[in-house]
Design goal:
Shape: globular
Structural class: mainly alpha
Number of helices: 3
Radius of gyration: 13 Å
Mean pLDDT: 89
Number of strands: 0
Order of helices and strands: HHH
Length: about 80
């Protein structure tokens, strides 16, 4: 994978994470979860191609958690919990 795509994918995970920590975005915000999911998918593909199995596992779990968060959000599960 192109180095630029790797940086974009990493930024798609790290920037929203930093924004969440600084209170600019909630951990259940749709954009936060989507950026984490997309970034994770791109990095999983790259890690798979590079045979970096530990990183593949990390990104699969990261993406699964983001996907679960999106599913819960769409189903209204945990709607009354804190988002910050």
């Amino acid at each position: 994978m192109n180095l630029a795509v790797q940086f974009i994918a990493a930024a798609a995970i790290l920037v929203p994470f930093a924004w969440m920590l600084f209170g600019r975005m909630g951990r259940q915000d749709r954009i936060y979860l989507w950026l984490n999911l997309v970034g994770s998918i791109l990095l999983t593909i790259d890690a798979w191609r590079g045979r970096q199995r530990g990183f593949v596992l990390l990104q699969i779990v990261w993406g699964a958690v983001a996907a679960w968060g999106l599913i819960r959000r769409e189903l209204g599960i945990g709607a009354g919990s804190a988002t910050g």
